[in-house]
Each structure stands twice: as structure tokens, then as C-alpha cells.
């Protein structure tokens, strides 16, 4: 497989060749490395959150199918038409309330996952700003 010549370079070497006075090249490279690590960590948290939501959705589907089978068995049971209508109305109400609760649970899982990923990025942005301030202070000296 052919290598891409645009990505076949040493960033540290390239920057150091410019010999910018007062610029700590290692600090710049290190900061960029930490930025990439933070993005990778945030992506991992987001991915794990989506996996958790997928697992929970599968659980909800399984439970719903089991409950539907139970309801179907109960609906063919003997009883007056009024009793059956009353029971079906109660079951529909229960199903609707459960669906709302499940949607809220899934939304909460996604929100938590997004907040965790955003916190990683936010912390890194704050640290990055502090690093830039430090680098600028060193250049002025």
C-alpha cells in the first residue's frame, strides 16, 4: 500500500526548522497531543453512551414483546365485552405511560453521555487556554 506523502512527516521537526524565537516547540506538540487525546476520550465516552442506549433499547423491546404476548393471552380470556374493554383501556394507558418512561430513560442516558463527553472537551479547552497563556508569557520574556 502506498503511503500518503502529505502525512509522512514529523510535525516537531517541521516546526523546529522554522526556529521561531521563544517558541517551545515541544510544549506546542505536547499540547496538541493532549488535545487529540481529549477528543479521543470524548468520542469513546459518546460511543459507550450510544452502546448503552442500544442495549437498553433491546431490553425495552424484549420486555415489550413479553408484555404484548401476555396481554394477547389475557385478551382472549373469558369475560364480558365490558370487562374486556375496561381491561384493554387500562392496558393501553399502562403501555402509554411505560413508553413515556422508557423514552425519558433513554433521553437521560443520552444526556448523561453527552455531558460526560462535553466535560472532557471543556476541561481540555480550559487547560489549552492556560497553556497558550503560559507560552505567550514565555515569549514576552
In short:
The chain is mainly α and 141 residues long. It is 84% helix and 0% strand.
Descriptive report:
There is one protein chain. This protein has 141 residues and is mainly alpha-helical. Helices cover 84% and strands 0% of the residues. α2 runs antiparallel to α3. The longest helix has 60 residues. The two termini are 48 Å apart. The mean pLDDT is 83.
Blueprint (SSEs and pairs):
Blueprint: H1 11-18, H2 25-75, H3 81-140
Helix pairs in contact: 2-3
Mass-distribution shape = rod-shaped
Query: What oligomeric state best describes the polypeptide chains here?
Result: single chain
The number of helical runs is 3
Which series of helices and strands comes N to C? HHH
Describe the largest sheet: none
- Report how far the terminal alpha carbons are from each other: 48 Å
Note the beta-strand portion. under 5%
Number of strands: 0
User: Taking Cα atoms only, what radius of gyration do you get, to the nearest Å?
Assistant: 28 Å
**Category by helix and strand content:** mainly alpha
Q: Stretches where pLDDT falls below 50 for ≥5 residues?
A: none
Instruction: State the share of residues found in helices, binned by percent.
Output: over 70%
Query: What is the residue-averaged pLDDT?
Result: 83
